[in-house]
Amino acid sequence: MAFALLCLAPIFVMLTRVGAADLESLGSERTLALLGRTLKLGLHSTIIAVLIGAPFGFLLARTDVPGASLMRPLGIVPLVLPPLFLAITWTAMVELRGPYATAIVLGVNTFPLVALFTAKAAARIDARREEAALLVGGLRSVLRMELPLLLPGVLTGAALSFAFTVNDWSVPDYISSVGPKFNVYADEIFANWQLEAATGKAVVTALPLVLVTLAALLPALGLRRRGALATLDGDFRRPAKLQLGVWRWPAFAFCLAIVLFTVAGPVARLAYEAGGGSRGFTVGAFKESMATTLEFEREFLANSLIWSAVAASIAVPLALIIAHAIERIRGARLLEPIVLLPIAVPAILFGIGTINLWNHDLTAQLYDGNGMILLLYLGRFLAFPVLVLSGAVAALDPRLEEAAELAGAGPLRRLRAIVAPPLRPSMVGGWVLVFVFAMRELDAAVLVPAANHTVIFKAYNRIHFARDDSVAALCLLILFFLVLPGLLWSLFAREKLEVLP
Question: Residues 54, 234: contact at Cβ < 8 Å?
């Protein structure tokens, strides 16, 4: 019921606003052109994400590349970064504008998804298969054996990359503002709502995009299970690192170039601009800019940190209950595609649906208060910990719960004492996912008035109206708090953080 109210109601309430006249725009030439342009952008970005992410994830997870333990966490940073931040840094460093710049930025932003799923698939290949392949034909034979086993992971990451890309509004909006004008589906949805106040038309405009996104995500569910279960046997043996020999240092150069291009470059550019940029960089100016920005934006930063942390803390226990039900109740796995709906719907449309659902006299106080932000964040991102935890529950031996039930333990006690402890890395991973995505959520925050008090919305305003040094300083502050949860976990926890379903 909580999932239906938070995640599904904002979507379905929008369908009630569609009239017969709105449906006429579905087959219009403009709509078809927008669909073609958005699909082209999504495909280009996904290809870039796969070309970077698949070899990057495989090399760092399965081979003896030097520095893998450091480059692996650094490779996740582009996904943590709000894509708008990558857009403002790379358009400042490279004279590239228009659709191709947008595809590159979004491909760089989402390649960690492909890398993470590829690395997870690579780690699940049984060592005995590898040893047999080595005996038969050496390293080349190992690669021929492993590539088909990696394919489900690569395709799952690619599907998620495509879904993130085609639904993004901020990057095309920004790059169009500084270069050749072009628009995508999310722009049209925003314009229909914000400029024309046409709710039904905005919903109808989004329907083809939602169907396309679902067409990419639904196969990813099957691929996820195939990749997670097909290579694991009861006596599974973890494979050793592949020895690359003469290819070791070229592989290192490739991985290092990816880290420098996607992480070090944008962060260094932000630091350069915060310290004075073209007016003359100094360490003193950098410190002053950071201190001044922190002082002026303290309230907005605190708002985002508190609301994101509270939303994540509410989402995880809800997700545990839902994920456990999906895996343990007969027939409940059929509900898993419904979990994808909040991810498949563009954030712009989800924001519109949230406004239509809660902007009434009876819920006026909730709509105008901080509770509205929590409802928005939970509705948008509850699906992520549900997917993460359902994968973790599927790997948990059900006989442990059966023994506890025979001993008289009730459902809540079994969840708390039997299911939750071994799932702790996945629960923390789900918490981090909700926290990070809530902190960097801009598309829906642009529309929902209560979310205008978040730090990402403040950064969006600064990007368009403030000086470069203050914009860069605020971006660096946001980035610091985005990576902080994962950094603290890696420093003080002995378990690996699980953020994949």
Answer: no
Kindly state which CATH superfamily the domain 2-492 is placed in.
MetI-like (1.10.3720.10)
pTM: 0.86
**DSSP secondary structure string for all residues of 319-337:** HHHHHHHHHHSTTGGGGHH
CA–centroid distance for 422 within its chain: 24
Q: Which of these, 243, 12, 24, lies nearest to 142 by C-alpha position?
A: 243
Q: How far apart are CA 413 and CA 401, in angstroms?
A: 10
Q: Are 32 and 93 in contact (CB under 8 A)?
A: no
- Asked if residues 324 and 415 have their Cβ atoms less than 8 Å apart, the reply is yes
Residue 440, SS3 per DSSP:
coil
- Report, in angstroms and rounded to the nearest whole number, the Rg of the chain calculated over CA atoms: 23
Residue 242 backbone dihedrals phi, psi, to 5 degrees: -75, 135
119: Cβ contacts below 8 Å, ≥ 6 apart: 57, 58, 60, 61, 62, 72, 153
Judged on CB neighbours under 10 Å (0-12, 13-18, 19+), 411 is middle
Instruction: Say how far apart CA 283 and CA 288 lie, in whole Å.
Output: 9
Q: Using an 8 Å Cβ cutoff, are 441 and 348 in contact? A: no
Specify the length of the chain in residues.
501
**Residue 152, CA distances (Å) to 231, 243, 461 in order:** 11, 24, 40
Q: What is the mean pLDDT of each run of 10 residues along the chain (501 residues)?
A: 90 78 68 81 93 91 86 87 87 79 91 88 72 68 72 86 86 76 72 63 75 82 58 56 83 93 90 85 88 88 92 94 88 81 84 84 82 89 88 81 84 86 87 91 81 86 77 89 81 63 53
For residue 285, CA distances in Å to 164, 166, 280, 293 come to: 36, 39, 9, 12
Q: Kindly list the distances between the CA atom of residue 223 and the CA atoms of 44, 117, 127, 188, 215, in Å, as whole numbers in the listed order.
A: 22, 11, 22, 32, 13
- Cβ neighbors of 333 (< 8 A, separation 6 or more) are 326, 327
What stretch of H or E contains 345? none
What is the spatial distance between Cα 237 and Cα 132, in angstroms, rounded to a whole number? Answer: 13
> Residue 242: beta bridge partners?
63
* CA dist., res. 437 & res. 309, Å (int): 11
